[in-house]
Design brief:
471 residues; mainly alpha; Growth Hormone, Chain: A
């Protein structure tokens, strides 16, 4: 039974009184703040402002912004100064991506933790603390092998546990069904915001104070912003907080009930037996192979075309800005058109737009590339994350993605190395970038044949019986 608003406010105030008035706490028998009580008060306070699921989206946004800004967009600003100081080639610097594979054997375990009650909170909080400390120590490295260990292995492990394509998107999938497209769009905006906020910040700090100061600033951001936010606000699912997906009231309305019934949650075992899962793995692998090296090398590519670091920074920021702008339209579209078709269009146009940077021989063409590739490529993370949840449901999505993510991560880790090798051989990036553009288009073709998986026969019969009984 819901209390009147005035009584609810009085009840909440009394609970806060227990925390902040020791005398009152003593008289009432209260003996200290527990984690569950703090969680309940936090949930109530946030829910008075907006649906708690949007707090989950904000955490995903922050982790995506910082991890993508540091591990993707921002890393390209460190290539030239660190390579020159250590006397190494670009292929040796690019090898850092291979060291991020150290966590892959335990990725399935991380996926299972995402589906546990306190798993997401622990993963992001502990991961962000380790990542922040690793970046602070990276500022003190004196040779490339120290960089490989601290940034490649330690930071890479922490980054995968706190962000990437696993934790945040999987948790958003649990909190939203009807509004999943727009929620995923806002959450994945953080990926592009990493290029719009974190990368320019890194570029400015490096230009003013050197690359070592750049690592210090990035490490402090993780420790000061992400860790406290995750520890206080992160929750696995709405049911854990006594809520319903999308903020619907309980009992759920007919529209939400229909959405819930239509979304069957595959178990890991069931998902692995479907053709659709392996097509999705192929699409995700193509995406990571094509996306990672472009973000890694695009600043150096622009500089090789005869433009200075300032212009390269502006172009990278422009691409990130348009990628941010693109996500909400792609997210809304995935709510109204079957995500299979949206994936196909998004991936294909990403490949076509990437060809422009290869052909560009003047500044205006580079800006056309930045705008168009941002508008197309920017929608891919949103659409892909929606597709995983639409195809396989929300209950076991962490376990499913934890098992399949390493496949794409391995492919994506070696493509920056290939791009660095190609540059050292031909002193330009034309060949690898052309190949990456073609791979985007191949991904679009795969999306066309990746139909929604059929519900296992035994489960379908059970659902029919439940429907007959409720009728």
């Amino acid at each position: 039974m819901l209390l009147p608003r005035r009584l609810r406010s009085h009840k909440l105030a009394c609970e806060y009184e227990h925390f902040f008035n020791p005398a009152y706490a003593s008289l009432s028998g209260f003996r200290g703040m527990t984690l569950s009580t703090l969680d309940r008060l936090t949930e109530r306070l946030v829910s008075r402002l907006f649906f708690y699921g949007w707090a989950i989206v904000s955490i995903t946004f922050a982790t995506a912004m910082i991890t993508a800004g540091i591990g993707g967009y921002g890393l390209s600003f460190f290539i030239i100064p660190m390579s020159e100081e250590f006397g190494i080639s670009r292929i040796e610097f690019s090898a850092i991506s291979a060291f991020r594979l150290a966590l892959l054997p335990v990725m399935p375990l991380l996926g299972f933790l995402v589906d546990k009650k306190h798993g997401p909170r622990l993963l992001i909080t502990i991961g962000s603390i380790i990542a922040g400390v690793a970046l602070l120590l990276t500022s003190r490295v004196s040779n490339i092998w120290q960089f490989y260990i601290l940034y490649g292995v330690v930071f890479g492990m922490a980054m995968n546990s706190m962000g990437g394509m696993l934790v945040g998107p999987a948790v958003i999938s649990k909190w939203f069904i009807r509004l999943r497209g727009r929620a995923m769009a806002v959450g994945t905006m953080g990926i592009s915001a990493g290029g719009f906020v974190i990368a320019p910040l890194a570029g400015w700090v490096i230009g003013q104070y050197g690359w070592r100061a750049g690592w210090v600033v990035l490490g402090l951001i993780l420790l000061v912003i992400v860790a406290p936010m995750a520890a206080l606000l992160m929750r696995r699912s709405p049911e854990d907080a006594g809520m319903q997906p999308d903020g619907d009231p309980a009992p759920v309305d007919s529209q939400h009930a229909a959405a819930t019934k239509s979304e069957y949650s595959f178990t890991l075992k069931e998902a692995l037996r479907t053709r659709s899962l392996w097509l999705m793995v192929g699409i995700q692998s193509v995406m990571l192979v094509s996306l990672s090296p472009v973000l890694f090398h695009q600043v150096a590519y622009v500089q090789d075309k005869g433009f200075d670091l300032g212009i390269a920074t502006t172009l990278a920021t422009t691409l990130a800005f348009f990628a941010i702008v693109a996500k909400l339209p792609w997210g809304y579209l995935s709510e109204r058109v079957h995500v299979r078709w949206v994936m196909a269009v998004c991936l294909t146009t990403s490949g076509l737009s990437l060809f422009i940077i290869v052909l560009a021989d003047n500044l205006w063409m580079l800006y056309v590339y930045a705008a168009l590739h941002g508008l197309t490529m920017g929608g891919v993370p949103t659409v892909m994350n929606v597709a995983w949840a639409v195809y396989f449901g929300r209950r076991h999505i962490g376990a499913i993605r934890g098992v399949v993510t390493p496949v794409g991560s391995i492919a994506g880790a070696f493509s920056p190395i290939y791009a660095g090798w190609a540059w050292s051989t031909d002193t330009n990036y034309d060949t690898p970038f052309t190949m990456f553009a073609a791979l985007w288009i191949i991904g679009g073709v795969l999306a066309l044949v990746a139909a929604t998986p059929k519900i296992p026969r035994s489960s379908a019969v059970g659902l029919e019986r439940q429907g007959s009984a409720s009728a």
